[in-house]
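Can't paste images in this forum, so I'm doing it all in text. The chain is below; anyone willing to post the predicted structure tokens underneath?
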Amino acid sequence: MKKSDFLYLFFMVLICLSCKNEGGKSIFTLSRVDPPKVERKTTVDNGNLGRSSWQKPDIVIDKLGNIEGVTIADIGAGTGYFVFRLAYRKAKVIAIDIDKDMISFVESVKINLPRELQNNVETRLAVPTDPQLKLNEVDKVVIINTISYIENIQQYLATLKPGIKEDGSIMIVDFKNKLIDIPAPPLKDRISIGTLQTYLMNTGFKNINVDDSSLEYQYIITADK
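Text version of the structure:
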């Protein structure tokens, strides 16, 4: 197409767009097409579309046993993916995060829950070196998809341990050291099972149990205080 032909076509389009019908409205209108609306699930999924296929949250939560009436600290709670699932199982959950936006998001979801479930969720803004747990405050601690982001893991475990009741426990779920096709930290940043076992032993945790078969991409480590 010649430049003159292109200019002619361009101006013809402009003329058409400016044409008016008898009602004074443009014959041609340019309309913005909005993407289809997706209803946000304000209970447990919170935008984590597809995550359940590899995270298998029910399997993870089942590892905690009967949690009705149990107080659980979810460290690195994020958008509340596990927080609300735990609350639906009638646990009291303290959603702990160092990101104010994540805390605000969990609070925004919380207010849409049934009243009895709202009472099961508490949010707490922490700092990178301290989850801000009170002495003997919780029965269980879960750290899911978060351990590799903690700078000094052994010191962190020692700091949080007094917040767990004497008969309490900890569960850590994180990514295996292998190539995987889901969102995960780089291999060099992942924490191996053996390293975590050493940290737990060094901070006095007992009955350390490793499950590296229930989940394809992740391991589950549990230990008693």
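The helical segments are 3-18, 52-55, 57-62, 83-88, 100-110, 115-118, 153-160, 193-202. The mean pLDDT is 83.
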